[in-house]
Amino acid sequence: MRTGMLALATGLLLLRFLPALPPVWVLWVLPIVGLILLPFRSYPVAFFLFGFTWACTSAHWALEDRLAARLDGQTLWLEGQVVGLPEIRDGVVRFQLHGAESRRARLPDLLRLAWYDGPELHAGEHWRLAVKLKQPHGLVNPQTFDYEAWLLAQRIGAGGTVKRGELLSPAQGPSAWRDDLRRRLLSADAHGRQGALAALVLGDDSGLTMADWRLLQDTGTVHLLVISGQHIALLAALIYGLIAGLARFGWWPRILPWLPWACGLAFAGALGYGLLAGFDVPVQRACVMVAVVLLWRLRFRHLGVWMPLLLALNAVLLAEPLASLQAGFWLSFGAVAILAWVFSGRLGAWSWWRTLARAQWTMAIGLLPLLLALGLPISASGPLANLLAVPWVSLAVVPLALLGTLLLPVPWLGEMLLWLAGGLLELLFLVLAQIATWLPAWFSPALPLWAWLLGSLGVLLLLLPGGVPLRGLGLALLLPLFFPPLHKPPAGRVEVWQLDVGQGLSFLLRTHEHALLYDAGPRYGDFDLGERVVLPSMRKLGVSQLDLLLLSHADSDHSGGALAVQRGMPVAQVLSGEAQALPAELGAQPCTDGVSWEWDSVRFSTWRWQQAEDGNQSSCVLMVEANGERLLLTGDIDSRAERALLDSGRDLRADWLQAPHHGSRSSSSQAFLQAVTPRAVLISRGQNNAFGHPHPQVMARYRALSLEVFDSVKSGALRFELGAHASAQGLREQARFWREK
């Protein structure tokens, strides 16, 4: 049985690693082959085929429910129901619409929409909306959250922006009740931690600020402020422990067998908490795991601890095969497996404090390979922070928050309990802030496979029981994880990355010993791509400091992420074409015409139009030459600035040209293109952007000159080596089945 369950799990998990899904006809054949093999005692192969077929079929269904390409960028009137809890941040209402219908086309079942300056929405309402639709699309960079995989795992088939709308019917049903409960929680007096309470009680993290997320990430405590398996299991354990304690002291009714009642009520409590939290995929996963553990405790303890874990894994994946696309799935099952490995079979009893300490350091070490494989930050302060935060949140904050929520109908009592829970959270955040200041999170550079395998072997050795031979060797094997070999371009060449930052610009240029960032991506309110994309990508590429941050001009889509970059790593110098318009804390110096320098046999030179009349025209232009190959970065200069650059008498010939002003109609004049004579043009822009970039007339000029065009929407982040006289590669070329169109 165990072999068959392992084979089934392997087939279900294989989906995560497929570059493309097999054809539908293959999925018809595979289960037939499995049925044929069953009588010949080849049931592991049959179970593997069944799991693989079901996972791929489910993925096909999700992909078929995506928005049709012909509707991408179209505006349609549609009707549907608001589901989940709408989020309001920086004047934008973001929400999900279920059962969307339109007279003009078939639409995906679930949409994720944004309504700028929209009205307050409530879960359960029915709306008629005019929506500009777009296909699922995310930024693709060396080190960022895979938004497209997340959308597919949530079975969200399209996004869009609401233009107009009218309410058809008011909120109703369980969703409306949860929304009303959230409003009560957010209006409670909780020492400013109402958003954290809503996250703990309802699973709604929209009330947490970016500063909160940074703090939780730095201290490795993110799992404590979003409802996870830990919270569900905690409530079940408290109920089970309460009944067991009553039975032990003879206070439980003898007519009722305590063990079945303890298991049943513990599961009921876990399920109720899950429903309160919205019962999304992570909560469903936690409830399944709790159910399997309680069933094991009730009837099947003789099977050991690994069979329940395997059953829970298969149950979760059979219910939602796309769960394997989410990092939380791997971390939750990985954490449980590590604890089972460390604590099962050990001789003797441990004190509670020793058990808690052992759990924290083993989790910190055991999850290292998973965190690195998933590209997540490593919190060196995590064991210490969790040693304090886990019992603080689990034994004090969560019980008070849940009890206060249940007692809200009772005058003053519920509010008082929430006030206490909020005070405890505020105190915890103050302590975590001190820990984060002392030891922030660490982002590992890209690891070669051999280094990751050696480190994983080292982790396995360290988790073995004490006294096992060669256990100490594990420490040495961990070294490649923390000191990986870094790729550096040879002298005379430049590694160039055009990062995928949507409607903005950011180029990373790295010579053998130096690094330059040209523009830092946009910032929209609390959404900072400098912090979310540019900084993590540079760390992933092994850049630990910048010799120069060159901001072409002060527009937010070019300089919005600059402060986040400067806070995140040392920056020796900041230059800009609009230094006076940037925040003073950046310490930017003006870019001047005619400045040139050389790094590692690579030549750099700048130009700026002194008679510029606006910010775009003030863009600082950068020419880079390596081994006879040239790159021209132009910022947002328009045709007038292009003419001034032509009149300067410079040699503008370049092999690579960054499309001026994202390919707008006011740039890329014919005379300028003929003077530069590039062989390739690099366009950085957002999908279906409101400006219409790149303009059709500009694209026609590029085609007329037979230029190779690299569009960030189609390529993702783009890499090439200046001086190697080779082509560029986009990260979207790395096949992933969820990026199929």
Automatic annotation (TrEMBL):
Asked if the keyword Cell membrane belongs to this entry, the reply reads yes
Annotated InterPro entries: ComA-like_MBL, ComEC_N, Competence_ComEC/Rec2, Competence_DNA_uptake, DUF4131, Metallo-B-lactamas, RibonucZ/Hydroxyglut_hydro
Residues passing through the membrane, by range:
44-63, 232-252, 258-283, 303-323, 329-349, 361-380, 392-410, 417-438, 450-483
| UniProt superkingdom | Bacteria
| Any one GO CC term of the record | plasma membrane
Which segments constitute the Metallo-beta-lactamase domain? 503-687
Q: What is this protein called?
A: DNA internalization-related competence protein ComEC/Rec2
